[in-house]
Amino acid sequence: MTTYLVTGACGFIGSNYVHYVLEREAGARIVAVDNLSFAANPANLEPVRDRVELVVDDICNFPGMLALYERVRPDFVVNFAAESHNDRAVVDPSSFARTNALGAQTLLEVSRRRPVSRHLHVSTIEVYGELPAGAPYFTEGSPLNAKTPYSAAKAAGDQFVRAYMQTYPAMDIAMTHCANNYGRFQFPEKLVPLMITNVLRGRKVPVYGDGLQMRDWLHVEDHCAAIQAILRGPKLDLPTEAATHPELLPIFDISARNERTNLEIVRAVLELLGKRPEDWIEHVPDRPNHDRRYLIEPAKLERALGWRPAVPFEQGLEQTVRWYVEHRSWWEAILARTGELAFDWGAGAAGSAPTGNPPPAGVGSSL
Ligand SMILES: NC(=O)c1ccc[n+]([C@@H]2O[C@H](COP(=O)([O-])OP(=O)(O)OC[C@H]3O[C@@H](n4cnc5c(N)ncnc54)[C@H](O)[C@@H]3O)[C@@H](O)[C@H]2O)c1
Questions:
Q1: Residue 281, domain member (yes or no)
Q2: Ligand 1 atom closest to the CA of 58, numbered from 1
Q3: What torsion do the CA atoms of 101, 250, 132, 260 make, to the nearest 10 degrees?
């Protein structure tokens, strides 16, 4: 039996990953760790609860994580746990710094003290910052150039991952940077489910600024497949030249080379819902310091492991819209708990929390 310790398993991608593994590995045992922060939804794991042990804990809790490793003896650790909602990071950066940087390091340290077969840290395209005009894409060798509180916190976690890879070469560590994901189980503060749940309740769709921000979109199943290919793939090389050539570290960028403007995504979703975009789009003030464009290139992953995205974008988006239409009780339960989830940036960088759901306070003050 193979034991997976999956952190952030009640969130969007973590819960999709748990389903992905259980559907393909009859003998897999999953230990899910989540501190049940605002975006967590244990209901995502309900259909597989008999095969999942859910441990409610914080990845920053070193003694708790150490005791958990000693008890369950994981073969593989996949760290999805993060504060991931960009709008909230502007309002409350401290909770992001804590989980995304300190939490990442805490988990690495536990994997160093209680070795596992492979530790995979899930990071994001956003650590590379904004793509300069005319530049084709980022690669694994691009410098980290985070410019938002979310991406800065993730980049700090990345730096610890790179440091652990090189300082403790006996550890087997991999890291991924993924493009924007879409699919089922996504907290309805994010663009795709926010749009769908608004329209299904007869509300307009807020589009930040001109809506021409460019994003790179990947179906969540393709992300899960890439993670699994890396986690279960052959031994990862760590040549000494990696010290000065970071593209040689066991880091993989994951993308379907599917770049769209936010406005294109909004129009596509509205059309799938049978609505005329002109009637439903409402341009609202943009989030401060909103990245205009980022794009990564998955050539390294394709070459090394033969991974390819399997879900065509149009088909994946259509399936996703249908899922939210058919699972109204799933998102209505979230909205009943949180209140409205749209942010109003009319007041500028001071921002305003979504009504009824102020962001959680961080450990330090974010004032
Ligand atoms: N969503 C995307 O498009 C995307 C793209 C690329 C990378 N990523 C990365 O993938 C990972 C998962 O993203 P997601 O969209 O599923 O996020 P999410 O916010 O939906 O889920 C994160 C989960 O982590 C849990 N969590 C937060 N802090 C924790 C802590 N201190 N201890 C334990 N659990 C904690 C939350 O309760 C939540 O269930 C993140 O690391 C994110 O940076 C996301």
A1: no
A2: 32
A3: -90
Q: Which CATH number is 64's domain given?
A: 3.40.50.720
The answer to whether residue 89 scores a pLDDT higher than 90 is no
> What type of residue is 307?
W
- Could you tell me the pLDDT band of residue 364, with boundaries at 50, 70 and 90? very low
How many CB atoms within 10 Å of residue 202? 7
For ligand 1, which residues put their CB under 6 angstroms from it? 7-8, 10-14, 33-37, 39-40, 58-60, 80-84, 99, 103, 122, 124, 154, 178, 180-181, 187
The rounded distance, in Å, linking the Cα atoms of 245 and 242 is 5
Q: How far apart are CA 220 and CA 362, in angstroms?
A: 28
Residue nearest to atom 21 of ligand 1 (CA): 11
**Is the residue at 33 inside a domain?**
yes
Rounded mean pLDDT, 49-65: 97
Predicted confidence (pLDDT) per residue in 236-245, tens digit: 889 999 999 9
Alpha-helical runs (H) found in 86-179? 86-91, 93-97, 104-113, 149-167
Specify if 330 maps to a domain: no
Sorting pLDDT into bands at 50, 70 and 90, what band is 350?
Answer: low
For atom 1 of ligand 1, the residue with the nearest CA is 181
Q: Does residue 300 lie within any of the structural domains?
A: yes
> Which pLDDT belongs to residue 290?
74
Q: Which domain holds residue 117?
A: 2-187+218-260+294-312
- Dmax (CA) for the chain in angstroms is 58
Question: pTM, whole model, 2 decimals?
Answer: 0.94
**Cβ distance 2 to 76 under 8 Å?**
yes
Q: Which of 5, 6, 7, 12 maximizes ligand 1 atoms within 8 Å of its Cβ, making it the mutation to test the pocket?
A: 12
Joined tokens for residue 326: 């058919």
Structural domain count of the chain: 1
Q: How many CA atoms lie within 13 A of 86 on its CB side?
A: 18
**Per-residue pLDDT reduced to its tens digit, 132-171:** 878 899 999 999 999 999 999 999 999 999 999 999 999 9
